[in-house]
Design a protein that fits this description.
alpha/beta; Alpha/beta hydrolase fold-3 domain-containing protein; 40% helix; Rossmann fold; three-stranded parallel sheet
C-alpha cells in the first residue's frame, strides 16, 4: 500500500507510511538512550497497539484495504505467532509506553474508517498530556490506505498535507 510514487518519489515520505509503528518506537528508544536526536514524528494512520481493543478496532473489521485479520496478521508477523501479552515492549507497541514526555513533536493523521484510528487518537492525546506538541488530523470519510486512491480529491489533499508537513519538519 505504501509507495514512493504516492509521495512524489520522496523515499523519506514513503517511509512514514511503511514504518509508522517503527517511527514511534524509534522516537521512544532514542529518548530513552539519549540519542540519536529525533526531530519529528510523522505518523500517518499508525498501528500502535497490538491489543486491538479500541472501539474502532472492534467495529471497523472489514474496511477497504484493512481488515481485522490483516491487522492481526501484521502484529503476528511483527511480534511472533503467540507473544506473551504482558511482555510486549513499548518499543514494539508504542501505545504501551507509560511515559511519553520528552518525545519529539508529532503530526498524527487518522482515517475515519480505520481499525487503528482510536489507538492513534489516544496516542496523540497522551502525547499532548505529556507536553509533546502534536498536530492531529482526522480525515473524515476516509479509510486506512485511502491515499492510495490517488484519483480521489481527498487522497490528493492527504498526500499534499503529508508532504508539506514533512517539508516543514525537515526545513
Amino acid at each position: 500500500m505504501c509507495s514512493q510514487a504516492r509521495f512524489g518519489g520522496n523515499p523519506a515520505s514513503a517511509r512514514t507510511c511503511a514504518a509508522r509503528r517503527l517511527a514511534a518506537a524509534a522516537a521512544l528508544r532514542a529518548r530513552d538512550r539519549q540519542g540519536p536526536s529525533i526531530r519529528f514524528q510523522l505518523l500517518n494512520q499508525p498501528a500502535l497497539d497490538d491489543r486491538q481493543q479500541t472501539w474502532s478496532a472492534r467495529h471497523f473489521t472489514a474496511t477497504p484495504f484493512m481488515t481485522r485479520e490483516k491487522v492481526s496478521a501484521s502484529w503476528r508477523h511483527y511480534l511472533g505467532p503467540s507473544p506473551d501479552a504482558a511482555s510486549v515492549s513499548p518499543y514494539a507497541a508504542p501505545v504501551r509506553a507509560t511515559d511519553l514526555s520528552g518525545l519529539p513533536a508529532a503530526h498524527i493523521a487518522t482515517a475515519q474508517f480505520d481499525p487503528n484510528r482510536d489507538e492513534a487518537i489516544a496516542y496523540a492525546l497522551r502525547l499532548l498530556q505529556a507536553g509533546v506538541p502534536v498536530d492531529l488530523h482526522q480525515w473524515a470519510g476516509t479509510f486506512h490506505g485511502s491515499p492510495a486512491t490517488v484519483s480521489a480529491e481527498v487522497s490528493r489533499r492527504q498526500i499534499d498535507e503529508l508532504t508539506a508537513v514533512l517539508r516543514r519538519a525537515l526545513a
